[in-house]
Amino acid sequence: MHISEGVLSGQLLIAGGVLAFAGTAVGLKKIDYDKIVHVAILASAFFVASLIHVNLGPSSVHLILNGVVGLLLGWAAFPAIVVALFLQAVFFQYGGITALGCNAVIMATPAIVCYYLFSPFLNRGKRTVIVASFLAGAGSVLLSCLLLGLALYFTEKSFFEVSLLIITANLPVMIIEGVITGFIVTFLQRVYPEILPQKRRVT
């Protein structure tokens, strides 16, 4: 789901850079530095998961794991994803430096949204946790696809068909991400619950 260099308009690149900078600043401010290792591990997981990809026009289809990163890190997901995307751009030419801000917004914003929507349910019973985690994993990919489609559409109206193709191609990824996120969160709930966000129980 990386947008390549030279695809987006200059206005969108600037807007993406500003939003990514703001999100990263907020994320750094909110990081619990006693849990910085968690941030590093999840950034690494995001980095590795999206290395294996299938090119699709100006973008690509691959695992993202931004849902689980968002659930476990909250706002700290923003700097974690920015660092991972930067390293991918530098070492593997995935995406690009000029598109880094837009790519970060496309992948990190859904992570934050899913954190606020679904993390309060992680203190419930196992079935609720599984459902919430699945929806976070699948929903984060869906939101990323929608943001990517909007970015392409507002660059060129002719990209509308490409946007629909990207969303359609990522439908299986949404299901896979939901299952993986559900597995990871329920596993962590059992063996390492300290990593889960401590939220008020939802009744």
UniProtKB/TrEMBL annotation:
The chain crosses the membrane at residues 36-56, 63-91, 97-118, 130-154, 166-192. One of its GO terms (cellular component) is plasma membrane. Pfam families: CbiM. It comes from the Bacteria. It is found in: Cell membrane. GO terms for biological process: transition metal ion transport. Keywords: Cell membrane, Membrane, Transmembrane, Transmembrane helix, Transport. InterPro entries: CbiM/NikMN. It is a multi-pass membrane protein. This is CbiM. It comes from Desulforapulum autotrophicum (strain ATCC 43914 / DSM 3382 / VKM B-1955 / HRM2). The gene is cbiM.
